[in-house]
């Protein structure tokens, strides 16, 4: 499977942000996918065997103990013996079909299986073998904060997780499965400059002979190590192109890369690094948002702001499984590689996995099940919800899975900087305007600054391109006004042809630069083939472009400066859901509410690789938007909570974040209140999550029972009959999640939950908000719980004269003093329900079929 990073895909492109038009969209059970290819054509397949992986094997799975993090002991003799047996079985299975040497990876910790290059015929043979549970054909997946700490309240004097609670993520390990990391970046150093006397940090010490002499000895002091290696870490630092084993340190404690599955199926960008080194920038940015150091951020060599990750003292482990294809703006990932990355992250001992990767597959693919095993091993998984909004049912897998914390993207209050151009004349339009540099033309910093007149191009032809009629100023044909344009900056409209065609045509006409304005919306990054182009090109938004074009048509002389380092600061009010953020309901399991939360994911300033394959070469920071940027905000905050509560399970951490969210967020129109399908429970409130009162905990048996209800057990060790007999819920609406959804309320339904008190002894009182056409009664409505005690309760839902076949929203809140534990409700009532299938035997006869009506009243 090919998956994609859930990357910046906003309609409004900011400085260095990939956006609509710049790049492709960011972005059951035992089955063998239909095979249309020839039977002798090889593909990558991922095969799951029936026996459980190490983390699920009784006697090997990590145990939860109060105050202690649960980790799989991969080096213990028992675990090694067991995993050796699994690998031997993998090899024997492949040998039985004549494909022993076709194996790419053996999965043994989080998934029991392997990936291999096989023909469809061999895949069918495997599917028919006893002991084979699943066979998936690999698919491509796509890769999907200067003011963030203040906006999230981390710096608050009262209750702030940083300032008041003194939490920083100390000792917590965040695993980033993505496009790699920039080695040597200041955001990931484990040292700080040695302390010098204040006098020796002054201008006097640098500019006077006496100062230079007195302070000389302090300059030679080595940097001070400020990070210690975390206890129990079992990871490694793999060397490769542009990445040495010494590039890891006590902050960046691990780095691995996985490319076998990708190379078997896709071409590699010539500017990629076969190593953990990031050529994309996506992974570097995510790591810095989650756990980067507090550093000075620069754009175009100019200081713009101080930035910091959410958990400055947390450690980072990088697993590069996403790679750039030729001409691609963002990375793609093979599921075979991703699954091995999850395996190693669990074995290495990470506490949290950030997974900004997704696809539109079901929630029981290889990486979904590997992430479930990670959760069962005590690892919280935070995933980007996806960038396919605002259309409904667009939350990606694995974010749609109930064991994964799915994060949507909204704006945050504060300032941001954009690259800009400066219009010097006429006075009526004199201003700075947002601009975005093309990724295929020479860098402006190498060609500028340019202060020249702007000239509207004229090619004299209305072209026709991809069902779009062009204009005479789209530069899709040979430019006619060469004398006017020579030595000037060309103003060109988007549309009618490819960007590189436009730039090449205006360069041939003598232009020194191309300024292209969008035919609709804001500026985006332009992509194309550079070829022999030698002039820079930038894009501005549609409205700005039309404003300048109007002045030129009126006969004004428009003077423009193009210069790297011109910035426009824009203030954001925050608390708006972004249009690109994927929405619910959950396509794969409608009674599991998704997304779970929203967090800042718009115009986030973070680290960038200076050796990027795109037009950000030389930059060490960049702005990006996407649910990919929202997820590491949550992963970093979760690291703060993990430091404070090391024995909390992944489900408890997830519950604490969800039940303490706030709901004062609007949709992208700035007017309509967001609902649970937009933002799940609401916007993350880190300080409240520190002491949530109650949590909805869940473990391996809960998730196994859920999969049994889908007739898709995790592996052969799962006893579905035993789980059901023990009272575990098989219906998604009864899975012990901190959100509540049901899509089949007919007349009446009882939903069950269990809560655990993680605070001091207290009484909690239930209250429910629902539309008047749906009744909701909680029993018991009062819970008296000591510290660590748990209690079960029921919600009895009933309908009367309600709206059918439409989702309605509400909330259940448990209150105790100032503590509120809030769960969103999403309910869809049906007129009637009947079995989808009925079975019987014999040639004739009758069957009783139970029909359930949701209507109460008289029939006419």
What does this structure look like?
It is a single chain. The protein is α+β, with helices and mostly antiparallel strands. Among the domains are: 385 residues, Rossmann fold, CATH 3.40.50.200; 155 residues, Glucose Oxidase, domain 1 (3-Layer(bba) Sandwich), CATH 3.50.30.30. The protein is 20% helix and 26% strand. It contains 19 helices and 43 strands. It has a 7-stranded parallel sheet with strand order 10-13-7-16-18-19-30, sandwiched between helices. Helix 8 runs parallel beside helix 9. About 4% of the residues have low confidence.
Portion in beta strands: 25-35%
The strand count comes to 43
What is the quaternary state of this protein?
Answer: single chain
Query: Order of strands across the widest beta sheet?
Result: 10-13-7-16-18-19-30
Mean pLDDT level: 89
Distance between the termini: 54 Å
Which CATH-level-2 architecture of the domain at 1-149 and 168-192 and 230-385 and 395-403 and 604-649? 3-Layer(aba) Sandwich
CATH superfamily of the domain at 1-149 and 168-192 and 230-385 and 395-403 and 604-649: Peptidase S8/S53 domain
The unreliable regions are: 7-37
CATH topology of the domain at 1-149 and 168-192 and 230-385 and 395-403 and 604-649: Rossmann fold
Radius of gyration: 29 Å
Largest sheet: 7 strands, parallel
């Amino acid at each position: 499977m090919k998956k994609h990073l859930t990357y910046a895909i906003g309609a409004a492109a900011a400085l260095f942000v990939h956006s609509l038009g710049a790049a492709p969209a960011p972005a059951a059970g035992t089955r063998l996918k239909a095979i249309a290819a020839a039977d002798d054509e090889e593909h990558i397949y991922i095969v799951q065997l029936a026996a459980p992986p190490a983390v699920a094997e009784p006697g090997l799975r990590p145990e939860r103990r109060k105050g202690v993090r649960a980790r799989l002991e991969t080096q213990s003799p028992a675990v090694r013996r067991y995993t050796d047996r699994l690998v031997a079985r993998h090899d024997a299975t492949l040998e039985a079909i004549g494909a022993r040497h076709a194996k790419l990876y053996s999965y043994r910790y989080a998934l029991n299986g392997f990936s291999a290059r096989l023909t469809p015929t061999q895949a069918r043979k495997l599917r028919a073998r006893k002991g084979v549970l699943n066979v998936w054909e690999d698919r491509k997946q796509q890769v999907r904060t200067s003011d963030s700490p203040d906006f999230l309240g981390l710096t608050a004097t009262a209750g702030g997780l940083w300032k008041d609670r003194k939490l920083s993520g100390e000792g917590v390990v965040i695993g980033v499965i993505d496009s790699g990391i920039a080695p040597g970046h200041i955001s990931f150093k484990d040292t700080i400059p040695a302390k010098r006397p204040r006098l020796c940090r002054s201008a006097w010490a640098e500019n006077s002979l006496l100062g230079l002499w007195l302070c000389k000895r302090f300059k030679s002091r080595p940097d001070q190590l400020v990070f210690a290696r975390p206890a129990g870490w079992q990871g490694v630092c793999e060397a490769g192109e542009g990445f040495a084993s010494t590039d890891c340190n006590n902050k960046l404690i691990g780095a691995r890369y996985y490319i076998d599955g990708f190379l078997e199926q896709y071409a590699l960008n010539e500017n990629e690094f076969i190593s953990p080194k990031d050529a994309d920038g996506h992974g570097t940015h995510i790591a810095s948002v989650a756990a980067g150091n507090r550093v000075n951020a620069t754009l175009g060599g100019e200081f713009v702001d101080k930035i910091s990750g959410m958990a400055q003292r947390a450690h980072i482990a990088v697993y590069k499984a996403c790679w750039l294809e030729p001409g691609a703006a963002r990375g793609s990932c093979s599921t075979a590689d991703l699954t091995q990355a999850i395996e190693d992250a669990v074995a290495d001992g990470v506490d949290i996995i950030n997974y900004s990767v997704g696809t539109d597959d079901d929630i029981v693919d290889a990486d979904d099940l590997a992430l479930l095993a990670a959760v069962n091993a005590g690892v919280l998984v935070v995933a980007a919800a996806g960038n396919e909004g605002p259309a409904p049912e667009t939350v990606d897998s694995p974010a749609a899975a109930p064991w994964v914390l799915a994060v949507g993207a909204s704006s945050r209050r504060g300032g941001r900087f954009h690259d800009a151009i400066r219009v010097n004349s006429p006075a009526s339009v004199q201003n700075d305007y947002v601009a975005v540099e093309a990724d295929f033309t020479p860098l402006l910093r190498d060609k500028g600054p340019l202060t020249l007149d702007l000239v509207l191009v004229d090619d004299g032809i209305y072209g026709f391109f991809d069902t779009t009629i062009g204009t005479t100023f789209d530069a899709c044909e040979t430019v006619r006004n060469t004398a006017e344009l020579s030595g000037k900056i060309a103003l060109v409209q988007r549309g009618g042809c490819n960007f590189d065609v436009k730039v090449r045509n205006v360069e041939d006409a003598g232009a020194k630069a191309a300024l292209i304005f969008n035919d609709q919306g804001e500026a985006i990054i332009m992509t194309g083939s550079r070829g022999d182009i030698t002039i820079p090109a930038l894009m501005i938004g549609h409205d700005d472009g039309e404003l300048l074009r109007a002045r030129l048509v009126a006969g004004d002389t428009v003077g423009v400066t193009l210069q790297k380092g011109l910035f426009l600061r824009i203030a954001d009010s925050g608390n708006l859901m972004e249009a690109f953020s994927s929405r619910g309901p959950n396509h794969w399991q409608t009674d599991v509410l998704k997304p779970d939360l929203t967090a800042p994911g718009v115009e986030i300033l973070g680290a960038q690789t200076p050796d990027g394959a795109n037009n950000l070469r030389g930059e060490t920071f960049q702005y990006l938007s996407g649910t990919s940027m929202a997820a590491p905000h949550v992963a970093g905050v979760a690291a703060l909570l993990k430091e404070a509560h090391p024995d909390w399970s992944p489900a408890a951490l997830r519950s604490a974040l969800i039940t303490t969210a706030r709901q004062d967020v609007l949709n992208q129109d700035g007017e309509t209140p967001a609902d649970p399908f937009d933002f799940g429970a609401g916007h993350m409130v880190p300080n409240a999550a520190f002491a949530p009162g109650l949590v909805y905990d869940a473990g391996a048996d809960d998730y196994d029972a859920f999969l049994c209800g889908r007739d898709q057990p995790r592996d052969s060790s799962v006893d579905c009959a035993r789980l059901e007999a023990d009272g575990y819920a098989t219906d998604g609406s009864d899975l012990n999640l901190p959100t509540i959804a049901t899509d089949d309320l007919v007349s009446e339904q009882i939903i069950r939950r269990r809560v655990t008190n993680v605070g001091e002894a207290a009484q909690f009182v239930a209250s429910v908000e629902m539309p008047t056409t749906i009744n909701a009664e909680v029993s018991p409505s009062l819970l008296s719980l000591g510290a660590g005690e748990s209690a079960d309760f029921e919600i009895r839902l009933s309908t009367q004269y309600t709206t059918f076949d439409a989702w309605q929203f509400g909330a259940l809140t448990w209150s105790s003093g100032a503590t509120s534990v809030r769960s969103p409700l999403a309910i869809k009532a049906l007129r009637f329900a009947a079995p989808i299938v009925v079975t019987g035997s014999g040639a004739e006869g009758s069957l009783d079929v139970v029909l359930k009506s949701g209507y109460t009243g008289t029939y006419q």
